[in-house]
Amino acid sequence: MDTVLVAEGLNTFYGKSHILFDVSLKVNRQETLCLMGRNGAGKSTTFKTLVAVLKPRSGKILFNGIDITKKKPYEVARLGLSLVPEDRRIFPTLTVKENLLMGASTHRKGIWNLDMVFEFFPVLKDYQSRLGGNLSGGEQQMLTIARTLMGNPEVILLDEPSEGLSPVMVSTLKDLIIRLKSVGSTIILSEQNVKFAQSVSDRVVIIDKGSICYESDIETFKKNEEIKKAYLAV
Amino acid sequence: MEIYISQFIGGLSVAMLLFLVASGLSLIFGVANIFNFAHGSFYLLGSYIAYQTISLFPNFWIGLITATIGAGLIGAILEFIFLKRLYGRVNEGPFQILLTYSFILILDDAVKFIWGPEYKTIVKPDILEGSFVIGSIFIPKYNVFIIIVGIAIALLAWYVLNKTKAGMIVRASSLDRTMVGLLGVNVSMVMTAVFGIATALGGLAGAMAAPLRTVTPGAGIEVIIDSLIVVVLGGLGNFWGALLGALIIGEVNAFGILWIPQWASLLSFAIMIIVLIFKPQGLFSKSR
Amino acid sequence: MMNNIKGQYIGWIVFFIVFMSLAFLNPTEHTINIASKILVMGLFATAFNLLFGTTGLLSFGHALFFGLGAYITGMVVKSYGAEVFIPMVFLGGIISAIVSILLGFLCLRLTGVYFTMLTLAFAQLVWGITIKWYNFTGGDDGIQGIERPPLFDTFSSYYILILIVVFISMLLIYIVRSSPFGMVLRGIGQNPKRITFLGMNVYRHCLFAYVISAFFSAIAGGLFAGIDGSIHPNLFFWTQSGGVILMTILGGLNSFFGPLIGATIFIILEDVVIRQTEYWSFVIGVIMLSAVIFLPKGVISLLDFIQRLRKT
Amino acid sequence: MVLCEIKGLDKRFGGIHVTRSMDFKIQEGELSAIIGPNGAGKTTLFNLISGFIRPDKGQVFFMGRDITNMTPENITRLGMVRSFQVSSIFPDEKVFDNIFLAALSYHKKNWSFYKTNTAYKDAMKDAEIILNSLNLNEKAHLWAYELSHGDQKVLDIAIALAMKPSLLLMDEPTSGMSPDERKRMKVLLKRLHEEFKITIVFIEHDMDMVMDVAQKVRVLVQGQLIAENTPEVIMQTQSVIDAYLGEDGF
Amino acid sequence: MFKKHFLVLGLVAVIVLLSFSVSMAAEVIKIGALYPMTGRAGLYGKDSEAAIKIALDEVNAKGLVKGKYKLDVIITDDQSKPDYAVSVAKRYITSDKVKFLFGVISSAVGLAVTEVSKDYKVIFIGTDHAATDLTAHKFQRYYFRVSNNTYQSMFAGAMYLKDMPGWKKIAYIGPDYAYGRDQWLELRYGLDKLGVKYEIVGEFWPKLYEPDYTSYITAIIRAKPDILVAGFWGGDTVAFIKQAKAYGLFEKMKYFHPDAGGNYELFAAMGDELPDGLILSARHHNNWPPTKENKAFVDKFYKATGRYPSYAAQGAYAGILFIAQAIEKVGNPNDTEALVKALEGMKLKLPEDPEGFTSYIDPKTHQIVQMQAIGVTEKNDKFPPAKKMLGNFKVYPADKLMPTDEYVELLKKTKK
Fold this sequence. Notes:
The complex is a heteropentamer of chains A (234), B (288), C (312), D (250) and E (416).
Chain A: E1 3-14, E2 17-28, E3 32-36, H1 43-50, E4 58-63, E5 66-67, H2 73-79, E6 81-84, H3 96-103, H4 114-120, H5 122-126, H6 137-149, E7 155-159, H7 167-182, E8 186-191, H8 194-200, E9 203-208, E10 211-217, H9 218-223, H10 225-232
Parallel strand pairs in A: 3-8, 3-9, 6-7, 7-8
Antiparallel strand pairs in A: 1-2, 1-4, 4-5, 9-10
Chain D: E1 2-13, E2 16-27, E3 31-35, H1 42-49, E4 57-62, E5 65-66, H2 72-78, E6 80-83, H3 95-106, H4 121-133, H5 149-161, E7 167-171, H6 179-194, E8 199-203, H7 207-213, E9 216-221, E10 224-229, H8 231-236, H9 238-245
Parallel strand pairs in D: 3-8, 3-9, 6-7, 7-8
Antiparallel strand pairs in D: 1-2, 1-4, 4-5, 9-10
Helix pairs in contact in D: 3-4, 3-5
Chain E: H1 2-23, E1 27-35, H2 42-62, E2 69-77, H3 82-94, E3 100-103, H4 107-120, E4 123-126, E5 143-145, H5 150-163, E6 169-173, H6 178-193, E7 199-204, H7 214-223, E8 227-230, H8 236-245, H9 249-252, E9 254-257, H10 264-270, E10 279-280, H11 292-305, H12 311-330, H13 336-343, E11 347-348, E12 359-361, E13 368-369, E14 372-379, E15 388-396, H14 405-415
Parallel strand pairs in E: 1-2, 1-3, 3-4, 4-5, 6-7, 6-8, 8-9, 9-10
Antiparallel strand pairs in E: 10-14, 11-12, 12-13, 14-15
């Protein structure tokens, strides 16, 4: 299969504390990979390391064969690897439309533009001149994903997208991810909501205490109650 | 009646020069959350660079341009080498004050070292010499020029900030630098550019003020407090606010001089006290 | 917490020994003069930092209280003689505290830059009035020939007085900072909303801190009046407020002794560098710039660095 | 007995009607949840009840007193205490001091400025009891910012407990928590209710938590209270399913 | 530019080394000088410094008391801050063991330093600060001033106005501090004393270093005075004239600025732009008196610095000469009381003295007594970059310009 993103032996520190220990990952084109684990296990740190917000002390990240380990976050984004952060980070005093246009800063060509985004997220079209800060939590989650899509990324990293959303909103999110898959996006997801993760992912990687400790396709994972108990406390 | 009109117009040109000086401070202060204590030093640099250029190529307009570019470049370089290191650090705000204050000490002394302590002067271009006379009211052409430039800068800044992609990126950067970077914008460059533009505005103001004022070491210090008042009065980061603030200070002073000349020099502080007590976030704040 | 307290004791001992020994080492009058100024400005900066270092509220008008202390002492001593000097220093503190209640009532409703600018405006207003009210304050010529109090009328004995008053004042500020009230102030700095939802009034706590800060700033000002017996309206000017802010940040605003260290560095630098070169402002600027770049927590972080070296 | 009564509460922000003539009563001893889609006005409701924002119309009574126009700090002193969605702690203080500070406030020692902290035995004792009962004692000497996300939420609750509340309003106590942390929180909530006898109202998205813990559920949609009942009934209510729960059962 | 400075630096080093080797022979008498060297007043400090060097060279070349002593001056930037200056002055006396305090541009600093001089009984030579108080009610016997005070300028000004026909209405603009206020008080006192009838139509008080005078200018024009008296100091004059010119202010009234208006730095800064017919004076003029002493001084200064001196230079130069002459007369620098006696009434021919007049120090007030010359701006490009200088001078006799006891009483009352 075609590999798009490879991380080898990442070791990341937060100040003096060692967070990631030799994390290696492989992501195939057009798959949805779910990174699972408890709080503080290192999911967000992994994501931040991949998009160069945090610099690993050692290890290497290859994206489409290009070494991006030493690049800056904006360079990584321009290459097509984009993070949708856990805390959403909408620009509150910019309008919805401006928030979306900010996403186009990668200057990448692709299927995503304002029209396409509005078709995918009709809510945003109705609210396009509202300020980002006036949207509800669910709408903000939509906006933050849409904003990243505007940059036509090849790979999207979604950090805990279901967090703080009402069940009905999580369903909408599920539908959205399935639609994204259908247009050929590669998605890496981090989740604690097992039910939700199982409903959208192709493959699962579990991280615990900063190391990868389990990896399998989704069907195997679904059956493995032991693993779920041991690392996810479900 | 005529006296009120002429006093009003006088106040207007004071206000516009104030606004011109404060506009750069307003830009970085409000939009990029950087407090540049050294803004007055870039104003001073602007005056001296214009003086230097004009003494080499006797053309006022070239002087204006080199002053703007020169002050902007120096600002951008200082931001790139020093200010950048503070972003995201603990107590970033207080240390910005300390750092930009050290810029004042260094730049002002450098000016004295390079150009000496004596006063320099820039002559207005011929086309701006003289005044328009309406009845008994004099309006110096140069003041009209300043008013036009001031309005042009306010309009341009409003347009760029609110209607262009670059302005949008700047506004977004002021809110969340990390996120802007994640979206593929070279934020570091944006900050350098914003700082450079702001100091360029300071330089432009210095060059434009030079034909009306004394160009001497230490002249930068005096403008900083006035600019601060203007910026805060209108509400942070709001160009229209800064313009309104400048107008209020200019006009209140103009009429204060007429009616209570003894106390005129304290009026700007009195105005700020009154405004802040009744509108604690400045005049153009959105009440939350 | 325990470590901290131990560290602070060492700080107090070093502080007292260094400044006490100065009095016995047969120093020159100039050394004593500089040391006196360090103590006075150190107290001023420490008092200023009671508000800034805990709640984060940056007053750009603290010179008002310092100047008020100096002028009350200076003017009354000038009219009624040196016997009233020490009571006047104290009275200056009280009056300053009363003034600060009125000002705080208006200023502390604001936060952030707006608070900073409003305090600046008030201080500048008082500066302007001091200059204009010639018959009362002596205008910009200031007041000269303020006598020192009896018993402490030589430069060295006056130094002892300063040392005692500053030491006691700083100890009192220290006690306030480490009291429950001080803890509430730090809480306000970190999370004012939480303080509200713990049933405490943010505004009133800040006001009280502001008043204490004003009181000790004025004490410092009163002491200052006796050092050279010469005071001027520039004690009220914004550069004076700015100076104390710079000292505090340079020394380290998160540490109790930071402001004192900042004051020490500033005053010694000013004395030494200006003596050497006309381009002192350039030299001091470069030193300050390097400190900002290399000492991210202020000069006090050098101490941390030394401690870490000792541990390893 | 009614502990807190909300009468005709109404609030607009600009053009948006965030709370529409809300009426309900919180009984003493209840352990209830508030659910509703994002943007339904749940947090605003808490802000209105706790005095953080003033309502346009309507009244709030707490222990028989009209508290509509009281300041949040005075309402807190009456025994209505909040915890927050984003844990609201003092990050640059030690864990112990976080709770100690709250206990000092409860004992009205927050104005004492002439004695060192160790002089306040009552507050110290309270803080220690809370540390122990929430299993934070091993972490007492850490800086609060060093705690894990879940522990910070627990600390947030610990701070609230130090005020010895009679009514505790909790905004998404499990937000951002992993499944095992959620389990701990579940147990904690039940203990607070049973051992400490605190009336608790919490906002929640995790339906497992709501089902397991809450005795009563109120559903908010677009600023309106659309249902109020036991969890079992609520789960079956069609309007709630449409507006909030969805068919997937996440 | 930098090269030049290094050259100067090198030269200074050589001179220092040389003078050090010379000083082995002669005992060095230290003088502690205080001048602003940075900021807006820095020009006056720098010019004073240059003039001091010129004077030192002259004095030390001859040698004092048959080569037994030589003078050395330490200069410190007083930052125009009185409290700082006091501490430096004390350091000079106690650590550096200076025999004289010297200098000072700002009157506030002067008033502060004179107290130190009194307390420590060290002679303080004031070279350039004009507050009349220092030689009036704040007089102390160790203080001497070798430049004129504002009373002298303003009284000369009053005499000038008395002789000027066809005016009645007068307005004043001056900086809002003691210097600005004193000038106005003194001018009015002078006019009253001389029995001149006048009507005041406005008083304006901008702050010192006010950058923008536009609103003051429109208000002054409305007041329609025949004469505008100005009391600006330093660069403020430049800003005011530049701004007022565009409003046609100088066509509508006479501009009269008798204390610091005729400073050379104004002419240098304004070149052609300076209107003709302004009535100005200064404490020293580069083109008056047309004596060879004055010309020699100005030329020497130009040679040393590459620019013509501002008024402050002559004061500093005179101060060193007075010290030298006093030491010469007493024979040693240690007998302070004898030096005071020697300085009282001492006469010295200065660059500022016209033919047939010699400056002297008034023994009663320790104020130098000098002629005052008031002139009118006219074309004169002999001192570039200035294109205009003063001409058509009217000279006022020195002895008529001393503050009367009556005025000192008035001053005491208004200023406490």
